[in-house]
Design brief:
By secondary structure, the protein is mostly helical. The protein has a domain at 21-59. It has helices at 2-11, 22-37, 39-46, 51-58. It is elongated, with a radius of gyration of 14 Å. The two termini are 24 Å apart. 7% of the residues are buried. Residues 4-61 form the Tyr recombinase domain. It comes from Salmonella muenchen.
């Protein structure tokens, strides 16, 4: 995760005060691949051998937005 933060800073991309973490991006990728290719493909892509390990990454997000103070 520290290497990800370093790479994110080097990229020069401007983020809000709360930039996405490695695991948030990984979870987003898993959900997108699940929608396109199915859960089994997403599980293999994430490198998980257990469906139970993959499920938290593929859980559906609600449509609510939250502001962190």
């Amino acid at each position: 995760t520290k290497k990800f933060v370093k790479a994110r800073k080097i990229s020069g991309v401007k983020f809000s005060d709360n930039p996405p973490t490695f695991h948030e991006i990984r979870s987003l990728a898993g959900r997108l691949y699940k929608d396109e290719r199915g859960e089994e493909f997403a599980q293999k892509l994430l490198g998980h051998t257990s469906e139970n390990t993959t499920k938290p990454y593929l859980d559906e997000r609600n449509n609510k937005a939250y502001v962190m103070l």
